[in-house]
Amino acid sequence: MVDPLKIAGREFPSRLLVGTGKFSSPKIMRASLEASEASLVTVALRRLDLSGRQTNLLDFIDRKHFSLLPNTSGARTAKEAVFLAKLAREAGLGNLLKLEVIPDPQYLLPDPIETLEAARLLVQDGFVVFPYLHADPVLAKRLADVGCPVVMPLGSPIGSNRGLKMREAIRIIIEQSFVPVIVDAGLGSPSHAAEAMELGADGVLVNTAIATAEDPVGMARAFRLGVEAGRTAYRAGLAAQKMTADASSPLIGVMSG
Amino acid sequence: MDKLLEKAMSLTLQRFGRVMQLYAPLYLSNECIDTCTYCGFSFANKIPRCTLTPPEVEEEAQFLVRQGFQHLLLVSGEHPSHVSPEYLEEVLTRLRPHWASLSIETAPFSENVYRRLIHCGLDGVVTYQETYDPEAYALYHVSGPKKNYRHRLEAIEEAAKAGVRQLGMGILLGLADWKKDAQALADHLSQMRKKYWQTEFSLSFPRLRPCASDFQPSHPVSDHELIQLVASMRVLFPDVGLVLSTREPPELRETLLAFGVTRMSAGSRTEPGGYTHPDETLNQFEIEDHRSPAEIAAMLVAKGYEVVWKDWEPSEGAYAPFRRTDHGQSPMFGAASPNKDIKP
Predict the structure, then answer these.
(1) Which of A179, A226, B35, B110 would disulfide-bridge B142, Cβ 3.0–4.6 Å?
(2) Which pLDDT band holds residue B288 (cuts at 50, 70, 90)?
(3) Confidence band, pLDDT 50/70/90 cuts, at residue A248
């Protein structure tokens, strides 16, 4: 595997994560996932019939090709999130979990206090927690401290398609983080995704921009290319990066010479 | 108008996707102590009255479960002894294990009563102001507790203070100047949303329909105006759910889908016991869209929508009676061993 995304001892070939909400049909969703070549795919537990009595979204996600990342969207407190997580695990959905604790239905912003508490409890219970948070560098450190093997700061509010409005804060998170940083939410175009990768993000999660495009399959492919372009550029050493890297070295040669 | 419609379409798509949520109304009772001149259940109307017993409610609800519904709206007139808090507690407790979400559209209650109902599994409360024009309000609400304008206005706050997760607000089109009422509704919602920022709000704009009252609306709203209203509310509140009942005819319902509607009922009966024992003499109003849930779902799929029957997972924390101590008995998993029947 070339340049995989490494989280909690697992390797994922793709750095594009895709959400499965808002699609006009499960078939289009499935085709879009294939075009995206994503490794990790999120699913809202609130939408699933966990009893297995009815056909649902899960039937359209081939778990041989995609790793399932169930999310706790709808949970407004740590208690609700923990309950949902356990339901998911009991239903055989694995122990990877996208933690979303969102009390605000207007902008869908996450509650930092409940998120941190839920993360702490879920990590202790053996879950691999992918927490969704506002682009708050201090909170990102605290989530990693309680055992989250990755952090997922928002680029812009969910579904806003506004790109990296949180650019500065994300840059700080990337700089300070020991764990992978996946920019989640608000990415509206492949160029936004490329920009996040060029900034040094380890991955991006996209849902609305793909699901609500006129041609979701085409858009999924475009995002795959955008993520690859951005990551390749980052590894090749972007001009902006070089400026900060070189500033620290030349003086040493001069002083000691 | 075109620009408004375009904006409404793109906002709805962005926020909600190509998705439509389905729910069913279940009428518990047509007993009512209020005299509201526009309503089929008005105290003044000489119609046969009945209230379903809790087992009858379960029977009706099972019918709806078999049709695929997972979101239920329990509706009734206002009657302190027939549709008491205790009655609702029992109904909610019985229904809770079988439904993803339970809402009520009944008389207003106090914060304490709503707290008790939440404990039994209540997710949502729907309370329409009907009209925000106090003079018009006085004209239509002749007697009974609902006559009190202020009390009605404050009702939704009692539910909000109790922590009800979802609140439905609205106006009844035809009672007064719809533009003024729409503006007042928008103001009311804005204030409520800011104060109760953790609550999910939705709006509905039912239009007056023929009913037992033989009431003729003084300010009828045209189809064109209804479309304008839906689109305007979508643009004003991009994140708020907009609910459309079967009051409206099929073609209009389909037109309204694109401009902001996020939740629809299907195959509705507006009389108590109407699903298992239909009797139109008891209904609250006549519906226009008679298509079955399966037909509505097929229509939605043909139009490129994903039909969402389930959009909530009830949490153990909030509903003590729902607590599962033995997974073998759990209705959520429906079988002896949770993992055996789940497809990997």
Answers:
(1) B35
(2) confident
(3) very low
Query: What pLDDT does residue B285 have?
Result: 78
Residues of A that are catalytic? 98
pLDDT in tens, B117-137: 999 999 999 999 999 999 999
Structure tokens at B159: 């539910």
Residues of A with CB below 8 A from B18's CB?
22-24, 211-212
**Best mutation target, A22, A45, A67, to test chain B (most B CBs within 10 A):** A22
Return the exposure string of A209-225: e unless at least 16 CB atoms fall within 10 Å of the residue's CB, then b.
bbbbbeebbebbbbbbe
Phi, psi of B168, rounded to the nearest 5 degrees: -110, 125
Burial class (CB in 10 A: 0-12, 13-18, 19+), B117: buried
Contact call for B197 and A106, based on CB within 8 A: yes
The reply to whether residue B306 touches residue A52, judged by beta carbons under 8 angstroms, is no
Mean pLDDT computed over B228-239: 96
* B316–A23 C-beta distance less than 8 A: no
Contacts of A50 in chain B (CB under 8 A): 313, 332-333, 342
Percent of chain B with pLDDT over 90: 75
Considering only CA atoms, which of A96, A90, A152, A158 is closest in space to residue A129? A96
B79 Cα to chain A: minimum distance (Å):
33
Convert B10-46 to b/e letters by CB count within 10 Å (16 or more is b).
ebbbbbbbbbbbbbbbbbbbbbbbbbbebbbbbbebe
Tell me, yes or no, if A55 comes closer than 8 A to chain B by beta carbon: no
Given this model, what pLDDT does residue B14 score?
93
Residue type present at position B10: S
What is the residue whose two structure tokens read 């920019």? A183
Average pLDDT of chain A to the nearest whole number: 91
pTM: 0.86
Determine whether the interchain pair B317/A49 forms a contact, defined as Cβ–Cβ distance below 8 Å: no
Average pLDDT over residues B304-333: 55
Residues of A in contact with B199 (CB under 8 A): 105
Contact residues for A248 (Cβ-Cβ < 8 A; gap 6+): none
Does A91 sit within 8 Å of B342, measured CB to CB? yes
ipTM of the complex: 0.81
